[in-house]
Every structure is written in structure tokens, then in C-alpha cells.
Structure to design on (557 residues):
């Protein structure tokens, strides 16, 4: 048995030096050579003269193809590496390569009546894979005799084995019941936007259970929004395998992205570095075109650049690419210090609880902001709740909300009072420890919360429930938070929920003030971040804790 690892811990050095990102030779060289010979003989129909892949492809393409087919044990038929993940910039012939890989698999496959599958998220994406595959067959007389092309059902059938390659659009075609052993999933980032994508992909790949020679290939560019859903799950897993944090010899990640040091200094803006995420530079990707388009983007408003960076430079969209972003977003990631609620309370001498929430269509945000008794730094732990109806009303962000639920930073409830009950329980714990200065909330959202807090002795009359100023009156809290982040005296728990909420904040200035609002109406939730600002309005006054009587007696005793 061959010995190998799919981890590539030196990928940063490799990618900058234009070296391959697959850290091992094909497991079975003879299998790789056979398949690569077929792949190289296929013609690229949309290039002048219809050259073969062998004549025009870059070395990284041959390495990827060899890794796929070279992982099949010729003695047992088992596919020793069964999952492949390729994330690469747009226009690096991803869909054309996908078509050629699956056509190669159809040509050399030994199983009869097998269905090979290319699963695309939309009809348009399906066409991007099917059309070049069909054109490859028609461009070669020998292939045209061997394979039968049926455009109306996007299917190519092997006349001898009766196996077929079918291209399916997930938005129109039925995926259920497929028993494909070799599957390619194109544009995974689009699937990441769909609430039902995980179940759909499980159904589509179910045939692998009884196909030991099977494999699944995920192809994608970066998303036009922060990664979510199945795309985020797979991207995170691929990075962990690549970096050696997870050992999975059956999963091979190939990710063309900038090393963190280059991202930190925005090296992707330098044309000399475009090659890092565009290994087909000089072939299917034009350096001159990228430079011209970059110039256009830099001349426009910053809010339009994120998609260009994501698609053509494979830069993951984060929270700080908009011109009207909250300035604190630039420092948010630097002040991450993983900590749970218990740690915040253990370290704090005083705590302010910030609360912000709308109706059943919004999140109910909570921020527990403590002042460290030793350093006097501010420590923030945040959480949010939403009612399950939001998943239906806001389907565009449903996969993202499920991500936060798995992270533990969001609780999805089906009881109208479950969120308030949970908030009151947390406030009760803070009070019982003798740490509570106040609960600061949007006055428009106090209602039921005031009644619930009164049951534990936290009331406006006692000065423990405060209506935090909103709109332009919140400017001081917003500015204070961003200054504290900039000088390193405000730390947070590092949740993806808060990174998302902070990234959704849009700052609207006037001649004399600013206010924080949503970058996009409806789906861009900012409630947890607003809860933090509510807490800052009180913490910035240097409050003292209102000791609970039982806590005082405990100390005296």
C-alpha cells in the first residue's frame, strides 16, 4: 500500500514560488498515466485550431488530473482518495477542465450502465460544463463514434458500456434517487446560499456507498459574499486538511488563495501578484485584462470591489471591503480572544448587559460587556436568538444562520418567549455574582423584557434597566467602541456571528454626527452589534456594580 498525506503545510511557500499544491506523486502512476493520456488527447473546442489539452494546459492541471485517477488501486478497484476540492479564481478554465475530467472518467470507466454526474446549481452553470463536453466529442471523429451526445437531456452515453455522463441543474432537475459513483459538483459557492443544499448533496453523492471506485470533486471560486452553508463547511474543512489540523488521507484540497501575510498587506492589489491565484496566467487568464479591470475597480466606490477581488483574485469577502463600513471593522479580527460567558464573568469587576432586538423577523442580540478587574480592558461575549420562522422569511441567510447555530453563537427557538427567558437567566447570573451595573437596551424593544426582568428584581426604578440612546445619539458609543478596538483595550469572543454583524454595519454621516445602520435592508442583520453599542453607552461612564444583597452577605460572612 502506498503511503501519503494530503496535508500541504508549506503551501504558502509553494504558491508564491509557482510550485504545485499537491504534495505527493500519483499513488498508482500507471493509472495516472493512462487517464492523463486520454485527458491530454481531448480537444479544447473554443480555442483556435482546437488544440488538445496536452498542448495548452498548465502543469497544475495535469497534476490535479493525475491525482484523481492515480488514486485508483488497479488491483482492487478502490479509490483511495475519494474527495477532491479545487478553489480557484474565475477564468482559469475550471468548468472546461471539469468537463474534460468527467469525459475522461466516462471513456476509461469499466463499470457498465453507470451514471456519471456533473451537478450544477443552475441551468446556466450546467451549460458551462455540458457544452464544452459535447463539443469535445464532436471535435474528434473517433470520440463521436464512441460516444452518443443528446443535447436535449444534457447527456453523453458510451455506446459500448452504456454508461452515461449527465449534467444536472439542481434548480430544475431531480437529484433524488441518483446512484452515481463519480460526481463533480460545480460552483459550490452557489450551493452555499441554499438552505436545502446539504440534503441535496447528500442525496446526489449517496451512490458512493456502493461504489468503491467512486469519487466526488468539488469545484468553486470564492463566493460573492462571506462564505456560508455547505460552501463554508467544505472550505473550512479543506483548509484544515491542507494545514494539517485534520488528518484525512481520502480528501485532497487544492486552494489557490493568498497567504495571510499577503492579505494583511493587501498584496493582491499589486499586479505582480495576480499569478498567485491565477495559475493559468498567460493561458486562459490575461494579465493585461486583470490590470485594466483592477484600475477600473480602484477608480470606483469601494463597495463594488469585493466581487472583483473574490472572483478574479480568489480573495474571501470579509467585513472590511466597503467604503462606508464601520471603522471598527478594520480592527475587529485583531481583537479576537476566544472566551465563554463564564470567563468574562470570572475576570470582570463590573458588567453591562446590552440588548437589541426587533420583531419575529429579526435577531435578538445580547452583549455581555465586562471590565477586567486587573487590566481594565473591556471583555465582550455575545449571543443572539431568532425564531425558526426567520429561516423561511429570510431564506437567503438561512444557511448562514444555521452556521451560527452550529458555532453555538445563535439559538434558534420556536417559542415566542424562549429568547427573553434565556436573556433574563443570563442577567440573573450576572446579578447573582454582584457584577451587574445595568441592562442597556433599545427603548423601542423593552416591552416584554422589562416585565421579565422585574421578576428577578432588575427594574428601571432601581437604575438597572436603561434605555440606550439610538440613531445619531449613539455616536459616542460607536466612536468609543472603535477607539477601544484600535488601541487594544476591547476584546471579544471571536464568534462568526459577530464578525458577520459587524461587517453588515453601514455608517451614515451627516455634517455633525453619524449613525449605524444596515448595509442592506432585510437580510443584513446587525442586532448583536447594536447590543454591544448599547452596552458601551453605559460602560463608557465607568459604572460600578450594584452588588446583590446575597452576594454582599456571602463576602461579609
Amino acid at each position: 500500500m502506498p503511503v501519503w498525506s494530503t496535508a500541504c503545510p508549506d503551501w504558502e511557500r509553494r504558491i508564491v514560488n509557482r510550485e504545485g499544491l499537491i504534495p505527493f506523486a500519483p499513488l498508482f502512476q500507471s493509472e495516472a498515466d493512462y487517464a492523463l493520456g486520454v485527458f491530454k488527447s481531448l480537444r479544447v473546442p473554443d480555442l483556435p485550431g482546437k488544440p488538445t489539452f496536452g498542448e495548452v494546459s498548465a502543469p497544475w492541471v495535469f497534476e490535479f488530473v493525475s491525482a484523481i485517477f492515480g488514486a485508483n488501486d488497479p488491483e482492487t478497484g478502490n479509490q483511495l482518495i475519494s474527495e477532491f476540492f479545487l478553489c480557484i479564481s474565475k477564468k482559469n478554465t475550471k468548468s472546461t477542465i471539469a468537463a474534460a475530467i468527467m469525459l475522461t472518467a466516462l471513456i476509461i470507466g469499466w463499470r457498465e450502465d453507470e451514471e456519471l454526474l456533473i451537478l450544477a446549481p443552475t441551468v446556466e452553470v450546467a451549460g458551462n460544463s455540458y457544452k464544452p463536453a459535447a463539443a469535445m466529442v464532436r471535435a474528434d471523429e473517433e470520440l463521436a463514434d464512441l460516444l452518443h451526445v443528446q443535447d436535449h437531456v444534457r447527456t453523453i452515453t458510451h455506446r459500448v458500456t452504456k454508461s452515461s455522463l449527465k449534467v444536472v441543474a439542481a434548480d430544475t432537475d431531480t437529484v433524488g434517487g441518483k446512484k452515481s459513483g463519480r460526481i463533480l459538483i460545480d460552483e459550490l459557492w452557489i450551493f452555499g446560499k441554499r438552505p436545502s443544499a446539504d440534503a441535496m448533496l447528500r442525496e446526489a453523492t449517496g451512490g458512493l456507498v456502493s461504489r468503491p471506485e467512486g469519487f466526488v470533486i468539488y469545484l468553486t471560486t470564492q463566493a460573492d459574499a462571506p462564505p456560508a452553508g455547505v460552501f463554508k463547511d467544505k472550505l473550512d474543512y479543506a483548509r484544515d486538511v491542507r494545514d494539517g489540523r485534520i488528518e484525512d488521507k481520502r480528501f485532497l484540497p487544492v486552494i489557490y488563495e493568498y497567504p495571510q501575510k499577503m492579505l494583511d498587506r493587501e498584496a493582491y492589489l499589486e499586479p505582480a501578484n495576480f499569478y498567485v491565484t491565477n495559475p493559468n496566467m498567460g493561458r486562459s487568464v490575461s494579465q493585461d485584462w486583470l490590470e485594466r479591470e483592477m484600475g477600473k475597480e480602484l477608480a470606483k466606490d469601494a463597495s463594488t470591489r469585493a466581487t472583483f477581488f473574490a472572483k478574479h483574485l480568489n480573495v474571501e469577502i470579509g467585513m472590511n471591503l466597503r467604503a462606508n463600513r464601520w471603522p471598527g471593522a478594520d480592527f475587529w479580527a485583531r481583537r479576537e480572544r476566544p472566551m465563554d460567558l463564564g470567563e468574562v464573568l470570572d475576570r470582570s469587576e463590573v458588567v453591562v448587559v446590552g440588548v437589541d432586538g426587533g420583531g419575529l423577523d429579526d435577531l435578538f442580540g445580547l452583549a455581555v460587556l465586562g471590565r477586567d478587574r486587573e487590566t481594565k480592558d473591556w471583555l465582550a461575549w455575545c449571543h443572539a436568538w431568532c425564531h425558526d420562522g426567520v429561516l423561511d422569511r429570510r431564506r437567503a441567510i438561512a444557511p448562514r444562520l444555521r452556521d451560527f447555530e452550529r458555532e453555538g453563537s445563535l439559538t434558534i427557538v420556536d417559542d415566542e418567549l424562549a429568547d427573553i427567558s434565556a436573556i433574563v437567566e443570563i442577567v440573573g447570573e450576572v446579578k447573582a455574582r454582584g457584577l451587574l451595573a445595568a441592562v442597556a437596551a433599545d427603548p423601542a424593544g423593552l416591552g416584554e423584557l422589562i416585565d421579565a426582568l422585574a421578576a428577578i428584581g432588575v427594574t428601571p426604578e432601581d437604575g438597572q434597566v436603561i434605555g440606550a440612546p439610538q440613531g445619531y445619539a449613539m455616536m459616542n458609543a460607536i466612536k468609543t467602541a472603535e477607539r477601544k478596538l484600535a488601541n487594544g483595550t476591547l476584546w471579544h469572543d471571536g464568534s462568526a456571528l459577530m464578525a458577520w454583524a459587524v461587517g453588515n454595519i453601514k455608517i451614515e454621516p451627516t455634517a455633525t454626527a453619524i449613525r449605524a445602520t444596515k448595509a442592506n435592508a432585510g437580510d443584513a442583520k446587525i442586532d448583536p452589534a447594536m447590543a454591544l453599542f448599547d452596552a458601551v453607552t453605559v460602560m463608557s461612564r465607568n459604572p460600578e456594580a450594584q452588588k446583590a444583597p446575597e452576594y454582599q452577605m456571602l463576602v461579609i460572612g
The radius of gyration is 27 Å. The chain has 23 helices and 17 strands.
